[in-house]
Design goal:
Layout (H helix, E strand, L loop, with lengths): L2 E3 L1 E3 L2 E3 L3 E7 L2 E11 L2 H19 L3 H17 L1 H12 L3 H18 L10 E3 L5 E9 L2 E5 L7 H12 L3 E5 L5 H12 L8 E3 L4 H14 L4 E5 L2 H13 L5 E3 L4 E5 L5 H13 L9 E7 L3 H14 L17 H11 L7 E2 L27 E4 L6 H4 L6 E7 L2 H9 L3 E2 L1 E5 L3 H10 L4 E4 L15 E2 L13 H4 E9 L23
Parallel strand pairs: 1-5, 8-9, 8-11, 9-10, 11-12, 13-14, 13-19, 14-17, 16-17, 19-20
Antiparallel strand pairs: 2-3, 4-5, 6-7, 7-22, 15-16, 18-21
Length: 511
């Protein structure tokens, strides 16, 4: 029986809305959940509810909030297999990857449960006697969090866990095509004992969300926006927040380069390129965009990469496969547009392209009614090609060549994104020169462009984001504000820079 789900605000379900079917992309005839999509007014109402609940939550001692985060981690851990299976069913992510995604939530909770005891400020010496200076971290208030569906439970936890730990209330708008996974995660969070209204779930489409967010910002009921999604939408949200003198946390797209040096372990580089390029069917913000390979090893690398791709298993995400289907019909349609960017001067070395069907099969696999697509490797990609410059969200990887490392760095930076990057080399000098020159927020050496750990900063620059970071202690700067306090117990007014004790030196002294 198909589950019907809707928004939950202040602990109460909001049943009415526009019907939307979240499907299983591995079997498009199967409806995973019937979703009631809310309107803009529902979103702004949720923000008012969160604002009313936030002060009481902020008054809960931070170490106690940390224990709530610990409970969330244990709840997710106890339900890991069930949640992972739902993720696999709803977005077609291979079960092993889905299980790893759920593990990321547990890791995030394990890291932040102790941060409730480490929301440190500082005591700062004053330039005047009988006066103390202090700094404090204080919550921002209400955070509106809008997330994509390619990581429907892990990436939201990067926002929700630190935001709640720091004493904020949250309105969370997940992707509608991953609504069932999001609703399941929401129920695990609320089972931890969070007070009603502190975490609210709004299921809505993009237009209603933007309009509701605009109203909430006008009303002053949202004080921080976190967004994971496309660069195009990120720009709109950045502009909206800028008009309200807010700095959003933006985690956007990527055109992530992998540089293969002449001294690289080519088998290792191929393994990294296979996972980064085609894992999750290339639908990660950190997916490999272009392999920039030294001209002396180009042919050898390409031959190995092509063979490895041909041997990789694509199919039912419940099994042991490299990748399953596209996330949803809209991503499949968009990916077919990207395939149209292949030009006559390109060489598709991987064989068939497009959707896998009985008429366009991949070996014995005919697609079985799902949104499955052939992985594509395009050689001869040039620096001015759209395939080189723009994000291609799907299983397509371009290949270019270089002569010098400086040229490789220039090529890697050319698209203007700055999320993730990778270099394969056995020379430490090359690795550090690449790190110094690349504009990406994340650099991997002899590892793929994809993969994150819960205690390392995650985020990008340029078209990939506004420099904000998620994960680790760094994300706390997104969900807290620094407050400075001075306490003068001298019994008189001491004026800074004026009533300063001074020790007079003899600057004319000479030996």
């Amino acid at each position: 029986m198909t589950r019907e789900i809707g928004s939950v605000i202040g602990g109460k379900e909001v049943p009415n809305g526009t019907a939307y079917d979240s499907i299983n992309p591995a079997k498009v005839s199967e409806v995973v959940a019937r979703v009631q999509l809310a309107d803009a007014g529902t979103f702004s109402s949720a923000c008012r509810t969160a604002a009313a609940a936030q002060k009481e939550w902020a008054a809960v001692p931070a170490p106690v909030r940390g224990r709530v985060i610990a409970s969330i981690g244990r709840l997710v851990e106890a339900n890991a297999e069930t949640l992972a299976r739902l993720v696999t069913r709803e977005i077609g992510k291979p079960y092993a990857e889905a299980l790893g995604e759920v593990r990321e939530i547990v890791d995030t909770c394990d890291f932040f449960l102790g941060e409730g005891r480490r929301l440190y400020g500082q005591t700062v010496p004053s330039e005047m006697p009988d006066k103390n200076l202090f700094t404090f971290r204080v919550p921002v208030g209400v955070a509106a969090v809008i997330t994509a569906g390619n990581f429907p439970v892990a990436v939201p936890s990067w926002y929700l866990v630190p935001a709640l730990l720091a004493g904020n209330a949250v309105v969370w708008k997940p992707a509608e095509y991953a609504a069932a996974s999001a609703e399941a995660l929401f129920r695990l969070f609320t089972a931890s004992g969070l007070p009603e209204g502190v975490l609210n779930l709004v299921l809505a489409d993009g237009q209603a969300t933007f309009q509701g967010l605009e109203s909430a910002l006008d009303e002053g009921t949202v004080h921080k926006v976190g967004f994971t999604g496309s660069t195009e939408v990120g720009r709109r949200i950045g502009e909206l927040c800028g008009r309200h003198l807010q700095s959003p946390c933006l985690e956007l797209g990527g055109k992530n380069p992998m540089v293969v040096m002449p001294d690289a372990d080519l088998d290792l580089a191929v393994e990294g390129a296979l996972f980064a390029g085609f894992g999750t069917a290339g639908q990660r913000c950190t997916s490999l965009g272009t392999v920039i390979v030294h001209e002396s090893v180009h042919d050898d690398f390409l031959d190995r990469y092509t063979r490895a791709t041909a041997e990789a298993v694509i199919g039912d995400p419940a099994g042991e496969v490299l990748c399953g289907p596209m996330l949803d019909h809209k991503f499949a349609a968009r990916y077919e547009e990207y395939l149209g960017w292949i030009q006559p001067h390109h060489t598709v070395v991987s064989g068939a392209t497009g959707r896998i069907t009985s008429a366009n099969a991949r070996g014995d696999f005919s697609g079985e009614g799902g949104l499955y697509y052939h992985p594509v490797i395009v050689d001869g990609v040039r620096p001015d090609d759209r395939l080189f410059l723009e994000e291609t969200f799907g299983p397509i990887v371009g290949v270019s060549t270089f002569t010098t490392l400086d040229e490789a760095v220039d090529l890697a930076n050319r698209p203007g994104y700055g999320l993730s990057s990778s270099i394969y080399t056995t020379d430490p000098k090359s690795a550090f020169r690449f790190r110094e020159g690349i504009g990406a927020g994340m650099v991997s050496v002899n590892n793929s462009t994809s993969g994150a750990e819960a205690h390392l900063p995650f985020g990008g620059n340029g078209k990939s984001g506004n420099g904000s970071r998620q994960s680790g202690v760094w994300v706390l700067d997104q969900f807290t504000r620094w407050q400075a306090m001075n306490w003068d117990y001298s019994g008189k007014l001491q004026k800074a820079q004026m009533d300063v004790a001074e020790v007079v030196p003899d600057l004319g002294f000479r030996l």
